[in-house]
Structures are given as structure tokens and as C-alpha cells.
Amino acid sequence: MLKQQRAKLVVGNWKMHGRLAANAALLQAVVQGSDEMPADVRVGVCVPSPYLAQTQLLLEGSRVAWGVQDVSAFTHGAYTGEVAAPMVVDFGATFAIVGHSERRAYHRESAELVAVKTQRALEAGLTPIVCVGETLEEREAGSTERVVGAQLDEVLAKLSVQEAARLVVAYEPVWAIGTGKSASSEQAQAVHAFLRARLAAKGAAVADVPLLYGGSVKPENAEELFRQSDIDGGLIGGASLKDQDFLAICKAAAATSVAG
Ligand code: PEP
């Protein structure tokens, strides 16, 4: 099959890491490195919300986009501790990760809640990065497609075709996140192809939404993953905290991009 000519996208998920001084050094290095990327490689970082102002200050006018790792299912109100999507937009952010497996597991976020958060992010003008993924038990039981399909369907069911076309979807097998044990490029491609078909079934305009792979992506395995026909880039956790590693992963995306 001919390789699809889609742009690449690499987004860092800092999780609950960072302090002002370390962030500044990391963001400055990423800005510098991203200047060398071809135009069809987009780079982003999703930072802890308290650092949005700092991130905006350091990234505004650069090639690097920024965002958050979660948004509230509400627009405003008595929801102590929550951060609403419009607040995030006030700081120039464009991305919001929703449905990360750590939130599904540790904060008991249901597929339905993830779908509502996706709607709130879209309404505010953000690009939701919707994460789906199976546990090791689910993979070993042969349930991967059923699990990720149901997670995606719950979101798609709440969206119009036009809204769904604005998504980014990240396949993040839970057993590969932060474990050092990445899915093989064949395993990842198989799930991405399945997700691509599911997206296409929603409407032709949805078929080409960026599909990112996440789960122990490192400089050593990034290029092979990104060469797969349905893998449009990566959502990078641990390696996004090290400038050299993150930029090496961005370079791998550039090597596999159309212009690269
Ligand atoms: C993530 O947290 O989204 C992730 C993919 O983590 P890691 O790269 O560390 O596995």
C-alpha cells in the first residue's frame, strides 16, 4: 500500500514534572531545535497548567505549540481544582490531552466523561488529543480492538463529522506507558489501521486526523514507528523531559515526513 502523505506531529506530555528553571531550559532548547524541522513536522508540548503563562511567554512566536494534559468537563462554576478549557485558551494553548490512561485509571475517568471533556475542548477552540489504549490483560485476552474501538466510539458518537475532523487521536497501550516497553511497529501499525478505519467510518473528513503512537517512544525506536503508514507521529512522555531525546524524536519525525 502507498504511504499516506500526512504531516507529522510530535507532542510532549510532561505529566506532573517541571519547575520554572528546568522548564525554561527545556523550552528554549526545544524552540531552538524545532527551527530546523521541515514545515510538515509540527511540534507541541503539554505542560502542567501552572506553567502555561511561562510556556506562552517562551513559546509565543516559535514553531512550538503548547497545551494542557486535561480539561474540565465544565466551562466554569463551583468545581474546585478544575481547569476549564476557555482558561487554557487565555494562555494561547492549542492542545488538550483528554482521556490519558493515567486519568482513566487514577481518577476513574469514564469513556463518557472523556467524551464530554473532548466536547468542552472543541467548543473552546482547542485541539483535543484523545488517548485510547488497552491494558496488558486486555491485549492478552485478544480484546485490544474491542477496547480501543469502544473508547473511540464513545467520543465520536458525541461529535459531528466537522468536530471529529478536528481531533488528534493517540493510541497509547497502557502496558507501554512509562515502562520502557514500546509496542513493536507492527503491533502499533495494526491498531492504528484499525483506528483509521473507525475514523473513516465516521466520515471521509475524519479519515485523515493525525493518529499518534504513545508508549515508551525513544530516539532509538521513533523512526521505525513513524515510518508506519498509519502512524502520524508520537505522544511522548518521559523522553519529552530531556531536550536531546525529545529533539531526536522530532528529527525522526522529520526523517519520515514528506519534506524531510
Ligand atoms: C504518555 O504519558 O503519554 C507516554 C506516552 O509516556 P511514555 O512516553 O513515558 O511511555
TrEMBL record:
UniProt cross-references to InterPro entries, sorted A to Z: Aldolase_TIM, TIM_sf, TrioseP_Isoase_bac/euk, Triosephosphate_isomerase, Triosephosphate_isomerase_AS
Primary site of residence: cytoplasm
The reaction(s) this protein catalyses: D-glyceraldehyde 3-phosphate = dihydroxyacetone phosphate
Top-tier EC class: isomerase
Pfam hit, one: TIM
One GO MF term attached to the UniProt entry: triose-phosphate isomerase activity
Domain of life: Bacteria
Keyword Transferase: no
An example Gene Ontology CC term for this record: cytosol
UniProt keyword terms in alphabetical order: Cytoplasm, Gluconeogenesis, Glycolysis, Isomerase
Annotated metabolic or biological route of this protein: Carbohydrate metabolism; erythritol degradation; Carbohydrate degradation; glycolysis; D-glyceraldehyde 3-phosphate from glycerone phosphate: step 1/1; Carbohydrate biosynthesis; gluconeogenesis
Residues the record lists as binding substrate: N13, W14, K15, G178, S216, G237, G238
EC number of the protein: 5.3.1.1
Entry keyword Cytoplasm: yes
Protein's cellular compartments: Cytoplasm
Stored HAMAP family: TIM_B
Subunit field text: Homodimer.
Protein role: Involved in the gluconeogenesis. Catalyzes stereospecifically the conversion of dihydroxyacetone phosphate (DHAP) to D-glyceraldehyde-3-phosphate (G3P).
Protein name: Triosephosphate isomerase
